[in-house]
Amino acid sequence: MILRVNPNRMELLRLRKRLVLARRGHKLLQDKLEEMMRRFLLLLKEIDQARENFLQRSAGMVQDLIYCRITSSASDFDHALEGITPRVEVNVSTARIMNVKVPLLRIEKIAIEKSYDFLRTSPQLDLVVAGAGAYVEAVLKLAQLLKTLDILAAEIERGRRRVNALQYMLIPQIEGAIRNITQKLNEFERGNLVRLMRVKEIVRSH
Question: The whole model's pTM is what?
Answer without folding.
Answer: 0.79
